[in-house]
Amino acid sequence: MLRFVPEKTQCFVVMDLEWNQHASRTNHEIPHEIIEIGAVKLDRDLRILDERQYIIKPVVYPVLDKHIREVTGIDPEELEAGLSFARAFTQFVKWCGEDACLCTWGRDDYPVLLRNTRYYKMDLPLDPPLNVQMVYSHLLTDKPLQQVGLSTAMERLGMDMDLPAHRALNDALYTARVLQRLEGAVSAATEETAQALRKFLNEEALAAQSDTRSVPTTYTNYDDVLGNARMVAVRCPVCGGETAMTLPWFDAGHGRFMALCDCPQHGTSFAQMHFKRLYNNKLVMHQRAYLATPERVADVMARRNAARKTLPRAARKAVRAETGETK
Ligand SMILES: [Zn+2]
Question: What is the pLDDT of residues 86-141, one digit of tens each?
Fold first, then answer.
């Protein structure tokens, strides 16, 4: 695995999170509140050294969501006795130590951790994780971009799921075991394959630090949202500052909109947007932006050229007015 991580790496920390939410009353500053951190530490040769489980008492969503309770088997009383997020996270970071390489299964956990630390105005001193799921998909399946569930991957690898329930620590332990199993494929991979995977993991790391926004709107159709300059504005994922649209939003198909925008300090970001409809037919906008690699810029340009639909005229005008573009 050392082929895919920074040279300074002293150990691997496989992390898995469980979080709570509220189905209808979401605080958009923190849509998912972490209630459990499970972590397993491995040395450079992927031998398991230690494990930790931190239970966190939820304060934003104090009532445990029914579905989450069923899936995780977490007992509300257990949460009641949990630590504050600040305390648990501080202990976790200290336990990780210097030059730990974080690992996760999938791309969901790190952005949630980032959002929780920002909510509590804390630093996140851990770099974006190695996504073990992508290493698996690239090296052991013929669909390199497929997001395979952990249990499916384990089944295909002929591994037993012998630990109880879906808890953060158990999933971290399973991911650690899969990581160990992947070592053979990593060593066997050609330099060409490794190079392609490295490029992809680099993009994953950028995406993990996305600026994401979920905004409930009063609109019921896309065009109205797209015509609202404040809705379609994109913030720089690095500094949070305003950006100028270099390629305005376009419909890339399947209800996904894309754009490129520029921060004078941090360069070009890639932005994506899609919508979800609420029970009352109102749209919720989901937006994500992260720094774009040259490959990503080329890819978005190609998609733009292939896309048939463009933004309505009014929307383009609104975007230009907002970003101060003259052309
Ligand atoms: Zn910036």
Answer: 999 999 999 999 999 999 999 889 999 999 999 999 999 999 999 999 999 999 99
Quick check: 160 and 134 in contact, CB under 8 A? no
Decide: helix, strand or coil at residue 215.
Answer: strand
Neighbours of ion ligand 1 (CB under 5 A): 236, 238-239, 241, 263, 265-266
- What is d(CA 37, CA 280) in angstroms, rounded to the nearest whole number? 35
- The answer to whether the CB of 136 falls within 8 A of the CB of 153 is yes
268: CA distance to ligand 1 center in Å?
9
Q: How far is the CA of 119 from the centre of ligand 1 (A)?
A: 20
Pairwise CA distance, residues 235 & 41, whole Å = 35
* Contact indicator for 245, 237 with CB cutoff of 8 Å: no
- The structural domain count of the chain equals 2
Give the DSSP H/E element, type plus range, for residue 56: none
Q: What is the CATH number of the domain that holds 42?
A: 3.30.420.10
| Domain termination residue (choose one: 158, 184, 207) | 207
pTM above 0.90, yes or no: no
Between the CA of residue 131 and those of 44, 159, 181, 257, 279, what are the distances in Å?
Answer: 17, 19, 15, 25, 34
Which two tokens mark 77? 């009383």
Tell me the residue ranges of DSSP E strands in the chain: 11-20, 33-43, 48-55, 100-104, 130-131, 211-216, 244-251, 257-263, 267-277, 283-291
Express each pLDDT in 289-300 by its tens digit.
999 999 899 999
| Domain range for 283 | 211-323
Cβ atoms of 41 and 124 within 8 Å: the answer is no
